[in-house]
Amino acid sequence: MKRIIFLLLCLLCFFVFSADERLNVDVIAVDYPPYTSSKLTGDGSSFILLSKYAQSNFSVSLTPFFLPPARANRVIKDGYWCLSFYPPREGNKVARFVSLSDNVVSMGFYRLRKKEGFHWTELKELKGKIVALLRPDVIGKMHQNILDAGLQMVYVESIEQGLQLVLKNRVDYAFGDNLVLSETNLSEVQKQKLQFSESSVHEAEIGFFYNIECKDKLFNQNKMELIIQ
After folding, report:
1. What CATH code is carried by the domain that includes residue 121?
2. d(CA 53, CA 51)
3. How far is Cα 148 from Cα 198, in angstroms, rounded to an integer?
4. By three-state DSSP, how is residue 1 classified?
5. Are 134 and 30 in contact (CB under 8 A)?
6. Does 3 fall in a domain?
7. How far apart are CA 201 and CA 108, in angstroms?
8. Both 131 and 184 in a single domain?
């Protein structure tokens, strides 16, 4: 009788362990506060949203995998990924996007504060200016638009690095969004010296990309019909 009870307990432990055992998957991201940053609680607001989404949609555990922009591009290009906040190159045939919020992020430029408003009708009005932005693996559509408008680009490894270059008068503008200042290590005095553009360069949804070749192992089977193809 004792042997039977012991075997039943062992069997029960096995099933509990099997149920809790989940495949671990890296989520590629770059340092972009307040959305993705290893220095923030929950690794940033986008990771917090993804964690909530994962509870009812994923059959895997998630681990943030922070990389410099160029390295993130390379890993995605080589196909060694399943989940990413960093956008794959335009035309990537295996990448699909899933929105995590109805909010749209407006991307623009920061400059040293002036009395007048910071806006433009056409980007070419900024011709000759130097802008700092994250280093890409290849020139994308947004980067090409900036070049076509006659601006010069200086590549940085983080948004904050670009803002520091503006404060030091080494570049005219730094690429970012209207929320990025709140999660930087800049002092309040430094933040007050910066002015965000009223015009936008690009608008982006808050969400993540997944590799369709990983779809079966990522998503719960009962959620498959809801996945964006």
Report:
1. 3.40.190.10
2. 5
3. 21
4. coil
5. yes
6. no
7. 5
8. yes
| Same structural domain, 150 and 184 | yes
For residue 78, give Cα distances in angstroms to 87, 88, 164, 218: 14, 11, 32, 19
Residue 153 lies in a domain: yes
CB 89 within 8 A of CB 77: yes
pTM: 0.74
* ∠ Cα 10 16 20 (to 5°): 145
One domain, residues 119 and 178? yes
Residue 158's domain comprises: 106-203
3-state DSSP assignment of residue 229 = coil
The backbone torsions φ and ψ at residue 122, rounded to the nearest 5 degrees and listed phi first, read: -130, 140
Q: How far is CA 106 from the centre of its chain?
A: 14
Tell me if 82 sits within 8 A of 24, measured CB to CB: no
How confident is the prediction along the chain (229 residues), in pLDDT tens digits per residue?
544 444 444 434 433 434 446 789 999 999 888 899 998 889 999 999 999 999 999 999 999 999 998 899 999 999 999 999 999 988 899 999 999 999 888 899 999 999 999 999 999 999 999 999 988 766 778 889 999 999 999 999 889 999 999 999 999 999 999 888 887 889 999 999 999 999 999 888 999 999 999 999 999 876 554 554 4
Examine the domain organization and report whether 199 and 209 are in the same domain.
no
d(CA 163, CA 7): 63
Asked if 128 and 151 count as a contact pair (C-beta separation under 8 A), the reply is yes
Same domain, 113 and 176: yes
For residue 194, which of 122, 108, 105 has the smallest C-alpha distance?
108
Contact by Cβ (8 Å): 180, 66: no
**116 and 198 together in one domain:** yes
**Domains in the chain, number:** 2
